[in-house]
Amino acid sequence: xxxxxxxxTQADIARYGQNYxxxxxxxxxxxxxxxxxxxxxRAAIFHKIIKAEERHAQRWARLIxxxxxxxxxxxxxxxxxxxxxxxxxxxxxxVVPIISALEARDEPGYLNQTEAVGLPAEERSHxxxxxxxxxxxSGQGDIVGREGxxxxxxxxxxxxxxxxxxxxxxxxxSLVMGFAGAEAKPEYILLAGVAGLLAGSFSMAAGExxxxxxxxxxxxxxxxxxxxxxxxxxxxxxxxxxLIYQAxxxxxxxxxxxxxxxxxxxxxxxxxxxxxxxxxxPSQLGSPWMAAGSSFVAFIIGAIMPVLPxxxxxxxxxxxxxxxxxxxxxxxxxxxxxxxxxxxxxxCSACRWQAxxxxxxxxxx
Length: 365
Description:
Layout: H1 10-36, H2 40-66, H3 78-90, H4 92-106, H5 119-138, H6 140-154, H7 156-181, H8 186-232, H9 234-247, H10 252-264, H11 266-278, H12 288-304, H13 308-312, H14 315-330, H15 342-364
């Protein structure tokens, strides 16, 4: 990859040419959408995206020429022709969600290219604007979906607790029933239940900590990149934010005014850009320790249910009490629908029990 103070290599020039062709493809694609769009406001948004893509293409063309290369000739790709035909015959609202998904998929392409400073943020905002345009036509169904995403992202500890209880109950119930079905001694059944409880709780906590920490570090990196891009090109960030607001249905003049006021305050600007371009809430990135603690405690709560009867009684009484207590606990007050009844958890455990019963029988006897 070329350094800012070194001459570009032939490989760099070839990469610039490939980037140029990709941007030209984007220009032709959005031009096809603008020509097929009957709504003037939506067409205006496509034209603004075209201008941004033209700036990107010009950047790569300048880099090619400065390196002594020739700007490659562009020919409209089959993909552009296909989307253009679909937009003309079925409407842009059918095509925009597909293009938004493709934009999101292509976003990482510029991340490791030092010459592409500022472009990843613009590509993300284009994807976000297209997504807003698609969601604006689809009604409350998408709004519910977006809220569900927010609940999932902000409720890291709640999610860990729910998974922890379910996993603890199912896995330890299967383990205890396997030993009990093999007619092991009561102390062996109790030992197996306690061992499964401890091993599972520490495993769940460690896994949850690692996953949430990795996710948080990724989000923090994305926010840091957004902050850097805001410092380097505030005007472009303002235009991109305005474009997103216009895609939401806000009039152009009002969108420009809102974006201008937001960008003037760096702290508010970073928070807003993270929400609008990245879909992140900087104050709700999730705590690894909170998620690990929730998962640890929840797994213990779920896993101790099949074990409790064996602390009090033994034999077939403990066996029946363990199964009934686990089944009763599986049906929480907030989730008593027929589809998610105790059968969902305990029925799954029964399958595991049959396998573990045979294994335990061969090992114990």
